[in-house]
Amino acid sequence: MFPTKILLATDGSQDAARAARMAVTFSEKLDSELHVVHVGVVPSAYAPAESKIVDPESYERMREVAERQAREKLDEEVEKIENMGKVAGAHAQIGLPDAEIVHLAKEIGAGLVVVGSRGLGPLTRAVIGSVSESVVRHANCPVLVVRGYGDGDKDYLPAKILLAFDGSKEATAAARAAVEIASGTRSELHVLHVLQPERYMPYHPGPEAWEWEANLARAKRLARPRVEEQAKRMEAEGVVVAGTHVAVGKPDHEIVASGEELDAGLVVMGSRGLSRLDRALMGSVSDSVVRHARCPVLVVRGQKHAEG
Predict the structure, then answer these.
(1) Helix, strand, or coil here: 262?
(2) How many domains are contained in the chain?
(3) Nearest residue to 15 (alpha-carbon basis) of 296, 305, 307, 300
């Protein structure tokens, strides 16, 4: 399933530099073209407040300046990246960064988008979100969000990959991606399945309420062979599965905690693509893991979302 084209979005930040190193590594190891995009930000001509204060001529001049600056910045970043690997295409865009990245990825047929995460503070994130999270949410292809590497000389091959697997179609797609990455980078794989205790609690208090702990323990016993079966399927494709893990708790918390405990270099997971209402009310597991994990996170969409 892995891409013939990788799109790296860069803004010159430290996290973008880390993302570039990992994108170059994946491009080389997975035999994929590397494309680079930088988006220059210009006010929207259709935003009510801006349309009242920016006349057409001034707006056009602003756009010309933004385009020139975007091209200059792109050339600067591409020069740095070409010191590490080959760049097949360079793209300077103007507009909202997340929208332009998603649109370009679809236009060039990218199979993977790589972005850095600046780790906005809680208040800023609550107000405007972040480009990386928006790209994860809206892209039709897998998105790799890179953060957590502070050493510029660090090897950007993930020695350990943690696959979060729940049996869904999206998780199955994520498993295929994890196998291909592990095979190309010679990384060891770990498979994690998380049980949510609230699903085994009784709806109403009664004589059987005490049985929920027994139900949870039974579910954990049943989950173990399913996870091991998934590991066997992955090993049959020639990769090393170093460990299988069953945890109990909130999926996002357990995935992040397991990644830290294993010192994983990459977390791979599926995304079920919650509706706008569900996401507004509770967010999603993938959003939370992208936000809190200390290592890069690859979020893989299911085939239905990709076709949509």
Answers:
(1) helix
(2) 2
(3) 296
